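Escalation from tier 1.

The customer reports that the assembly of two entities below gives different structure tokens on two consecutive runs. Tier 1 could not reproduce it. I'm attaching the input and our single run for tier 2 to review.
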Amino acid sequence: ETGVTQSPTHLIKTRGQQVTLRCSSQSGHNTVSWYQQALGQGPQFIFQYYREEENGRGNFPPRFSGLQFPNYSSELNVNALELDDSALYLCASSPRLAGQETQYFGPGTRLLVL
Amino acid sequence: RKEVEQDPGPFNVPEGATVAFNCTYSNSASQSFFWYRQDCRKEPKLLMSVYSSGNEDGRFTAQLNRASQYISLLIRDSKLSDSATYLCVVSNNAGNMLTFGGGTRLMVKP
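Tier 1 run:
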């Protein structure tokens, strides 16, 4: 186990709704990244938070937003849900912001948008 | 062209076989390289980091060729438990973004 937890494990929403996903990073890790993994594809980088500030963003629209809290836990918010947002959402934490650091993934949240 | 490309497979091999996966990446400024393993409906888990000098961990050997922008993974003496999807992963030069290939699916059969 990596010590990274995510909630909820599964979620069903309808198009146009909003969703908030949560992630608790491993103890001592101050960097959290979020990824979207569609069925049959590799994870795609959404954004990263380091010490409560966004530190890099992938090719996702502004309706994907996030927060990191002082205890380094994080939220991913998605507004105006679309059918294509159905995916596994993964968060990953790392002990510090450095190129060589590996990231440790949580079990993910499966989102289904109907 | 995708930033990280892998053959999706599946690779179907018998137990005890040797199997090799290849991966190419397009960003020459990429800094770090990894292989992750992902079991069905589970999260990716780090298998090994990849270094230019090549590195080995038991039955697994990884190699990086920066000039050709090519990464490989060799699995010797395949076990049933090696059945999974193997993800080639590249970190950008800022170290804040992992780019994943689409994964190569391996099925090891008795």
